[in-house]
Design goal:
- By secondary structure, the protein is mostly beta strands.
- It has a domain of 104 residues: Lipocalin.
- The protein is 6% helix and 46% strand.
- The protein is built from one helix and 32 strands.
- The protein has a four-stranded antiparallel beta sheet, with no helix packed on it. The protein has a four-stranded antiparallel beta sheet with strand order 2-3-4-5, with no helix packed on it. Strands 6-7-8-9 form a four-stranded antiparallel beta sheet, with no helix packed on it.
- A hairpin with a 3-residue loop joins β8 and β9.
- It is globular, with a radius of gyration of 23 Å.
């Protein structure tokens, strides 16, 4: 009887140790850990990612276009002698992208370069296409509209200072919105390239405006967040957020996320810009992305993948992966996964584990 009692006490003690250590690291016993993997290893830093048919594409510092198609090996095409940081735009099998020497390219993987145009300075923003015209901004202070087929310049708009951003298209009114480093958000007529209005944020606009549910959200370098009704260019609100903003705002459900260069992240009410919560992360945070209304991801410059989950109107933050490599670009949603380009030219894939 005594031996049985000793054995029972030993088993109970072992169970208590297991429970203690499982609870001590705040890890639920049934939780499955997320997974990530390196899906591409390059030798030159990639620019921003862009969608490409059933996959995605990026250009690199060597002037190459790399196309990633589902179920196939990546394909590499030489399209420039200069480096890229802008995202490529694919339309009907043709890629449109500008390089850091200011040359805008129209390239077909099957036929090679179709046309190109040299602007007066580097191109770091992406392009949009509407009604036979492709629009892109340059550091030479100009927004260009090229004929898709020929590359002929049909319109040019003076933006007052260098343009870093990708224009935002609002089809119902056939207009686009674009911010530039002169601090002004411009509304431009897509039919003739005329300026229809401008709103001054009084400091450079370093990144893209964001269009969501008919509202344009734009953020200045000094942290001024402005919401504008797209249909009539009426300013809905203007609030001060963080200083040193280099990323565009990120919309998730009823909230807008703002990131500052010092690692501060804010969640604000989308309707009026009111502050909801602030996180001090202590490291540079790249452009965040929302995978749905209640989940936001952002990768840090040190390769940590941060996640925010909203439950019962409360945002919770955690770090879900550490890639052990530096990252200077934001993450991108691809199907049910996240793609993260790293500093060395690789692409990391993050997949949330299913419960």
């Amino acid at each position: 009887m005594r031996k049985w009692l000793i054995a029972l006490l030993f088993l109970l003690g072992s169970l208590c140790l297991v429970v203690y250590f499982r609870l001590g690291d705040n890890t639920p016993m049934e939780k499955k850990q997320p997974s990530w993997s390196l899906v591409y290893s390059g030798r030159s830093p990639l620019g921003a990612l862009g969608a490409y048919k059933d996959g995605f594409a990026a250009c690199n510092g060597k002037g190459d276009l790399i196309v990633f198609s589902t179920g196939k090996e990546p394909m590499t095409y030489k399209i420039s002698e200069y480096s890229f940081s802008a995202p490529p735009l694919e339309k009907n099998g043709i890629v449109y992208v500008g390089d850091e020497n200011g040359i805008f390219h129209a390239f077909s993987p099957e036929r090679g370069e179709l046309w190109s145009y040299r602007t007066g300075n580097q191109i770091v923003g992406g392009a949009i296409i509407f009604d036979g015209l492709v629009w892109v901004g340059s550091h030479d202070h100009t927004l260009y509209a090229f004929a898709v087929e020929s590359g002929k310049v049909l319109h040019s708009v003076d933006c007052g200072a260098q343009v870093n951003a990708t224009p935002v298209l609002y089809e119902p009114n056939r207009t686009l919105f674009l911010g530039s480093c002169d601090g002004k958000l411009r509304r431009i007529n897509l039919q003739d390239g005329s300026l229809m209005g401008e709103i001054d944020l009084e400091s450079p606009i370093p990144e893209n405006p964001v269009l969501h549910d008919g509202i344009v959200y734009v953020l200045s370098h000094q942290g001024v967040l402005v919401a504008v009704k797209a249909s009539n260019f009426h300013e809905i609100y203007r609030v001060n957020t963080l200083s040193g903003c280099f990323a565009p705002p990120c919309i998730a459900g009823d909230y807008v996320f703002v990131t500052g260069e010092n690692g501060t992240v804010q969640a604000r009410q989308k309707a009026d810009g009111e502050l909801v919560e602030t996180w001090e992360l202590g490291e540079r945070i790249n452009t965040p992305c929302a995978v749905n209304d209640d989940t936001v991801y952002a990768v840090s410059g040190m390769g940590k993948l941060h996640r925010w989950l909203c439950h019962a109107e409360k945002w919770m933050h955690d770090v879900v992966a550490e890639f052990q490599t530096d990252c200077r670009m934001g993450c991108h949603v691809f199907g049910n996964d996240l793609l993260v380009p790293d500093e060395s030219g690789g692409v990391l894939l993050y997949r949330e584990a299913k419960p």
